[in-house]
Amino acid sequence: MGPGEPEVLISEEEIGRRVVELARQVSADYETVEELLLVGVLKGCFIFLADLSRLLTIPRRVDFMALAAYDQESATSGAVRLIMDLRTSIEGKHVLVVEDIVDTGNTLEYLMENLLPRRPASLATCVLLRKKERLEKDVRIDYLGFDIPDLWVVGYGLDYKDRHRTLPFIGAVKTV
Ligand code: IMP
Ligand code: MG
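Above: the input record for the complex with inosinic acid. Below: its predicted structure, written as tokens.
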């Protein structure tokens, strides 16, 4: 497993099956709401959100936020800042935050603290991957794709130094 060649951790087929299941669950849970607003967290969410949103069977809209770690060298130091906000108000709306991965939980915690005061009708989270053993924050994940070990993963939207985002599978890379 060298830095240039990610090793398959979750195959394209496994991801596909799980995203179908998640979409079914979300569609069932929100069946009675007028509309669901999917809030994607860029950049990592872009492929997951594209697949998930197209599989939903309920009325939905899509908006995006972008966050960045203050310290680019250590993405998980904890400090996060908002670099692009939503285009529209979420007040009174049913919001589902769509995230690629929860590592320490700092990013998701920041997001929830940022969105809750905007008074959405409901606020839930859909996360593709979680590194359970790295979690530092008690963040609520309503829909989870997979628990993964403490590895740096790429593909299906996720990057290592902005590389490998468009791989069809989730792969692990050596970062040192
Ligand atoms: P957290 O704030 O520690 O939960 O980290 C979340 C953010 O760090 C994610 O939204 C990703 O942008 C990034 N990240 C954490 N682990 C990985 C990984 O294994 N691959 C790619 N990005 C990751
Ligand atoms: Mg992310």
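Notes for the reader.
The chain has a mean pLDDT of 93.
The CA atoms of residues 97 and 125 lie 5 Å apart.
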